Amino acid sequence: MDVDKLAFTGSIDTGKVILELAANSNLKPVTLELGGKSLFIVFEDDDVDKAVELAHFALFFNQKVNDEFVGKAKAHALKCVVGDPFKKGIEHGPQIDLKQLEKVMKYIRSGVESNATLECGGMYIRTANETRYRLAVGIFTKSLDTENRVSRALKVGTVWVNCFDVFDAAIPFGGYKMSGNGREKGIYSFNNYLQIKAVVPALNNPVWIQ
After folding, report:
1. Which residues form the Aldehyde dehydrogenase domain (predicted)?
2. Strand 39-42 relative to strand 136-140: parallel, antiparallel, unpaired?
């Protein structure tokens, strides 16, 4: 009851418990930085090689590289350009309908269940805002229009454009939805620890304006 504010970084499940405890005590404000599986969006007009390097860094900077991205075959598959089949340079178009897509997914699941190793892909692309994690997203494009449009549309705490994992003391950091609330760093972090007070004094000689 004597604690006025809590800030927590950790798992979603623990964050929920902390919110419940805060609500059952003195309704203290809670700032949460919770789970995040950051999206990595690469547009067809971007430098794919640079994007691959940043993806590699983002995924493995705390780990050892596993057999150099598991060989040349996987590297080639990752360079496959997917999109509108009527556009020049597109190597792979969409499935004809949802039924065919589910058929393909069934074969993939069957392979995994038979102890085959799925090297890349294997999941169909949902919209970026459907994920429950909303901590950060990296987008890669040379188009300023695409950059502005997608950055505005993404419901996440941080959007990195043509870069990834860039931090600064002045840049606020935190998530939306299941990735937490509140912000660390930057001027916005102070809002987590401040309360607004309204002081309304009575005036002895009020001035009336007609």
Report:
1. 2-122, 125-199
2. parallel
Interatomic CA distance for residues 111 and 177, integer angstroms: 34
Instruction: Return d(Cα 151, Cα 156) in angstroms, integer.
Output: 9
Cβ(35)–Cβ(157) under 8 Å? no
Angstrom CA distances, 24 to 102, 116, 135, stand at: 46, 49, 27
Radius of gyration over every alpha carbon of the chain, rounded to an integer in angstroms: 24
CA angle, residues 178, 181, 187, in degrees to nearest 5: 150
Q: What angle do CA 164, 82, 86 make, to 5 degrees?
A: 135
Distance CA 135, CA 128 (A): 12
Q: Find the angle CA(48)-CA(104)-CA(51) to the nearest 5 degrees.
A: 10
pLDDT digits (tens, 9 = 90+) for 34-92: 877 777 888 878 788 888 888 877 776 655 545 555 566 677 777 777 777 788 888 77
Residues 108-112 have a mean pLDDT of 83
Q: What angle do CA 188, 189, 191 make, to 5 degrees?
A: 70
70-71-72-75 Cα dihedral, nearest 10 degrees: 10
Residues 6+ apart with CB under 8 A from 192: 5, 7, 29, 31, 182, 183
Question: Does the predicted TM-score (pTM) go above 0.85?
Answer: no
